[in-house]
Amino acid sequence: MGKPDGSREIIMRRLGLACVAALLCATTLTAISGTTSTAASSTPVAFPSKPKGLKAPVTLPKDVDPASAYVPQVACQPGTPRGVALTRDLVMRTYGVGGAGNTARSCTEGVSEHADGRAWDWMVDVTKPSERAAAADFLAWLTKDGGTNARRLGVMYVIYNEKIWAIYRAKEGWRPSSGHRDHVHVSFSWNGARGTTSFWTGKVHPVDYGPCARYSGQPGVVNGQARTTPCPALTALVRKTSRSTEELGSRASTVRSAQTALGVKVTGTLDTTTRSALARYQKAHDLPPTATLDQPTWSSLVPASTTWDAAGSMTSGEAARYGAKNYPTTLGPWATGKSVLVLQVALAVPRADRNGYLGPRTVAAVKARQQALGRPVTGRWSKADWAALAAAS
């Protein structure tokens, strides 16, 4: 299983303290007779001085893709995106050794980007000369010249033979890691995963920020399209439950009750059938489409599990007056947070759809109430709409 850096570095990076000066810094690589030393802080195996590398299928532009920042997995959306498949297939054709390995896995196996489909394991064993040589050639080509080819392919980091190299820390070279003696782990940026890089298209594309989470501490929404704007600020949960968040592959005891509520076969494992049912349920109840048993979904699916609600016990009239007093900003589609939850209560939206997420069902309720109030039917809820609703209530 691939995973970035060491566990300590993952924790520090998640706390916003990445690149700690005293943590696993590497020295400059030194070429000797066409190879480099394999001592600590050097390459994972001896590299050739003139690696063959991969041949791009297009004419490469003068400009080079920006180096990817570290983009951890946020969504559970396993699969094999186009760019990952293209890279895997080209590597296998170029070198013809080792095994194609795997890309996507269950979403319960750590922060290796496999759950996003953005990671690939090339099975080349360091103890087998032909496989070790192929890995050395690919890695030497990928990381040379400051990682130009990694940028063109959209590679974030690679791990092999207990060493890691990352484009976002390229100046540090190869640093100590763990495991990965029988395979090269490759993690991609979203541009790299989707194949929207200069290596495949002949031009540099805008940065793809990938899926975004809507609530703090919750999985991101499943998203198959490029996102060229940064994610919006995370919103605090508007409901909390006694259940923990569960993703594809989970065998938590609570999965069985979720399967019963969803009307699918009770297996005790959050399998692909359950995941698909979750996606359908979320679409039907104005929930962020995460295809996971996250907090908003638990609160809707199993209301008895709810332990806290930001709207408290407000009636629809109380919610209307509260909104008119406290929320002057217009709410549009996909708005998230307490203001949306209060609006859903004020509009008497069914309880299962009161999730603080302004999805299609809530938009429909907004339009219906705007029409009933004699207000412009826009699907966006304004300060004037709050005032009209409060007066009517």
UniProtKB/TrEMBL annotation:
Q: Which InterPro entries match?
A: ARB_07466-like_C, Peptidoglycan-bd-like, PGBD-like_sf, PGBDSf
Q: Where is the Peptidoglycan binding-like domain?
A: 265-301, 354-389
The keyword Transferase is assigned to this record: no
Instruction: Give the signal peptide range.
Output: 1-31
User: Boundaries of each ARB-07466-like C-terminal domain copy?
Assistant: 83-181
Keywords assigned by UniProt, alphabetized: Signal
Q: Which Pfam families match?
A: PG_binding_1, VldE
Checking SUPFAM superfamilies in the record gives:
PGBD-like
Q: Specify whether Protein transport is a keyword of the entry.
A: no
From the Swiss-Prot or TrEMBL record, give the protein name: Uncharacterized protein
Name the source organism. Answer: Aeromicrobium erythreum
